[in-house]
Amino acid sequence: MQIQGYFDLQFEAVKDAFAALFEDPQERGAALCIQVAGETVVDIWAGVADKDGQQAWHSDTILNLFSCTKPFTAVTALQLVGEGKLELDAPVARYWPEFAAAGKDRITLRHLLSHQAGLPALRQPLPAEALYDWQAMTAALAAEEPWWALGEGHGYAPITYGWLVGELLRRVEGRGPGESIVARTAKPLGLDFHVGLADSEFERVAHISRGKGNLGDAAAQRLLKVTLSEPTALSTRAFTNPPSIMTSTNKPEWRRMQQPAANGHGNARSLAGFYSALLDGRLLESELLDELTREHSCGDDKTLLTCTRFGLGCMLEQPELANATYGMGARAFGHPGAGGSIGFADPERDVAVGFVTNNLGPFVLMDPRAQKLARVLADCL
């Protein structure tokens, strides 16, 4: 497999580990970018970007990053907190009055960002097209009763997070949430990152497909079993209501919409650049970065049915759990996206990493491909 791009010789072992991924005949396309103290030391890519395996992955190929989008959304909200336009501990209903319905008057932005609000899913089945109707989704969430009481744990909100936090951004800034996020994070840093992709960019977007035959680890199998056998369970509703959530990634409507939980589009470079800018203070004041990266929720996740640990809109390191470690330092933070893409930082080593792939793996938290690369990287440092 021809590896394109640049790597510093100190990190040749990382390049070799990346090349080794392609020994799996199912591997399609991927890219890896690593920055140390703000300097790019690895920026490589390989494989194919299109459905039929005819089109090579290019330097400017972008793809759906799924939940790698969530920290961009959280950082945007925290910037607004820093400017006094939002408050972490004010009721969401202060900015969005309808949200107070069904006993949600005490839920705050902090609860939304740390997955404690009890709104990872909607009970009432929605039609597939509701996915693209911002008003319909935010109205449904404003009316929804929480699945558990405040203070009784946490459950990851795979997609409702985007409407919940995005609606606050929209109300405070008076523009689409994707516009706010891009204007506040990607544009100032020159990142090739989009939430709400212009049609003119579609030809650069990698087609996403699923690997076959790999059932993943115990956590993945547990979640799959519930979603296949319990149609009204919280976990099932979180991923399948509206029913189009998991099947829309390659559709033009999905690319165009501004759904800041799961439809950011970018590349490995944009992820590494984002985390570098968090480490050096370009995106958040240190006290807000501390809020982002300190533990808010930890333990059994009511949605993912495995142990998760969250800051505000980012996932924190769990070194003792094979499916939940970034493979670097104890203070690592970031976010995986469905199927294997990931962006994260290790503040102790001043390292920022972005890894993206268009061949979705079946894992619930961290993908072993990214973990392997991170372990090799740690050895190189």
From TrEMBL:
Q: Does the keyword Hydrolase apply?
A: yes
Tell me which stretches of the chain form a coiled coil: none
What GO MF annotations does this protein's record show? hydrolase activity
SUPFAM superfamilies referenced in this protein's UniProt entry, alphabetically: beta-lactamase/transpeptidase-like
Principal EC category? hydrolase
- A Pfam family found in this protein is Beta-lactamase
The alphabetical list of record keywords is: Hydrolase
Which ranges carry the Beta-lactamase-related domain?
18-371
The EC number of this protein is 3.1.1.103
Under the heading InterPro entries, the entry gives: Beta-lactam-related, Beta-lactam/transpept-like, Beta-lactamase/esterase
Name under which the protein is recorded: Serine hydrolase domain-containing protein
The protein's organism comes out as Pseudomonas benzenivorans
